[in-house]
Amino acid sequence: MEQDPAAASPGRTRSVEELKALVEDAQQRFGARDADPDEVLAWAAETFGKKLAVACSMASDTVVPALVSNHIKDVDVLFLETGYHFPETLETRDRFAADWPVNVRTLLPELTVPEQDAKYGPKLHDRDPGLCCGMRKVAPLDKALAGYEAWVTGLRREETPHRANAAPVEWDEHHQMVKLNPVVDWSFDHVVEYAEQNLVVVNPLLGQGYPSIGCAPCTRKVAPGEDPRAGRWSGVGKTECGIHL
């Protein structure tokens, strides 16, 4: 498992126009819904190889790098170490890295938590969660993804209204690269079932009232009947960290 390696990304060789053309071809091939994840990932493996990375929060989305590893051995898995994770999340990362043929890259923000506290004041996550997420999640991921042509996510349509129209293969305008969402059609129960059947470790907090898991200060348990993401940034009207905006 590598920690924030500056030169680990393979680099891009295709132009933006070439990458956009690949997205158009893939969308014609797979459509907008009900695409088979293995068919999408087989195409991605043949098209991008090691110029593809997987982003994983080590919650329920560990099924995604597990799926990808069936097609690309030692694929880079990008994990954002914000400094605020639950211990269970870090344990899930370490167990997953030991169990599967992947290369987990732990990405670090520019500032440590004490450095951020000194510069912006303590508990920035309470006062300006957007700024905190931007520095500790969005910026490190942006930097890492610049070295790849495609990335794979665990994004699912049922999670938020913002994600309701996501496609299996998309053009990522922000990162100027191909974005793949192979389990976009899956329900939470489908994810859990796949993990159980294929011995994929998932975050144990999922079974303790945390259906959506982020940083510990910004995540609470969800009551029965609540939206699964109601426990994220509760009370501040925020539902996305910025990675998928």
From TrEMBL:
Its EC number is 1.8.4.10. The active site is at 241 (nucleophile). It catalyses: [thioredoxin]-disulfide + sulfite + AMP + 2 H(+) = adenosine 5'-phosphosulfate + [thioredoxin]-dithiol. Pathway: Sulfur metabolism; hydrogen sulfide biosynthesis; sulfite from sulfate. The keyword Protease does not apply. InterPro entries: PAPS/APS_Rdtase, PAPS_reduct_dom, Rossmann-like_a/b/a_fold. One of its GO terms (biological process) is hydrogen sulfide biosynthetic process. Keywords: Cytoplasm, Iron, Iron-sulfur, Metal-binding, Oxidoreductase. It is found in: Cytoplasm. It comes from the Bacteria. [4Fe-4S] cluster binds at residues 132-133, 215, 218. Its cofactor is [4Fe-4S] cluster. HAMAP family: CysH. Catalyzes the formation of sulfite from adenosine 5'-phosphosulfate (APS) using thioredoxin as an electron donor. This is Adenosine 5'-phosphosulfate reductase. It comes from Kocuria marina. The lineage of its organism: Bacteria, Bacillati, Actinomycetota, Actinomycetes, Micrococcales.
